[in-house]
Amino acid sequence: MRTRAALLLGSILACGCAPVAQDPLRQLEAGQTQQQNVFEVVLAESLTRAKAGDVEAMRIVGQIYAIGAGVPVNHAEALRWYGQAAERGDAEAAYRMGVMIDYGVGAPANPSEAQRWLLAAAEKGHASAQRQLASMLAQGRGAAKDEAGASRWYLAAAQQGDPEAQSAIAARLDGGVGVEANPAEALRWYRAAAEQGSALDQYQVGFHHDMGLGAREDDYEALVWYRRAAEQGNADAQYALGTLHAETKSSLRDPVEACRWLEIASRASYPNARRALLSVERNL
């Protein structure tokens, strides 16, 4: 169960303070005062509990100093409290330690040390730590490059619903990077990320159905996913949607829609979009 301090801090960070006056300036001043009072209460309560050995309170104090919630930002102090919580097994604190140390926030950058903390959090099932650790292993940052290890941790995070990890493991399954190539499994993970709203992965789902990679060739499925990505501004999908409408022999052929999407892709300076548009227009 979360403590009162954690709930207060979370509600303030998420929502701010409710206005108490009609005048905008007085509203702002009152809101700032109320927020400051809440942060002071949270810090005082959390410090008392942290000094008594409460691990969650240690992490909360670290967060307060990391973001400057009612106190000046102090990354070194944030690291000190995160470190105390992480050493007692707190996965979130270990993750935050890893990220800060990796980027040299509050202490000199030390990718090897960052990996140690990220691994501690990843082994406790922290999805963001698993993804961050995978990225470091893939880049060879902090240790020798380990593509198999990167794929393993991306998969672990993907299985917890992390959309970036789902996209990453899909691409690795597509290319056989650190894992045996498997277009059908790649498509499954692209779809998982696509269903969470990723335009890049929506395009990839469309492309796989368009090309028959990991699934049977299906113009209709390709069009559905291309359109979802195109409507989010993905230029690859806009071009693909335009050419699909122009070139398909099925009932989905629609030169007018082809021109519309190729024109949009052309305005984004997408390679060959203007040439494809002129070709469709000549045949109208």
What report would you give on this structure?
The chain is mainly alpha-helical and 284 residues long. The chain contains 15 helices and no strands. It has helices at residues 4-15, 24-51, 55-67, 75-87, 91-102, 111-123, 127-139, 147-158, 163-175, 183-194, 199-211, 219-230, 235-247, 255-267, 273-283. The longest helix is centred in the first third of the chain and has 28 residues, at 24-51. It is elongated and about 75 Å long.
List low-confidence stretches.
Answer: 16-21
Radius of gyration: 25 Å
Largest sheet: none
Roughly what percent helix?
over 70%
- How many helical stretches? 15
**Shape field:** elongated
Strand portion: under 5%
Helices and strands: which structural class? mainly alpha
> How far apart are the first and last residues' alpha carbons, in Å?
66 Å
Order of helices and strands: HHHHHHHHHHHHHHH
Beta strand count: 0
- What is the average per-residue confidence, as pLDDT, rounded to a whole number? 91
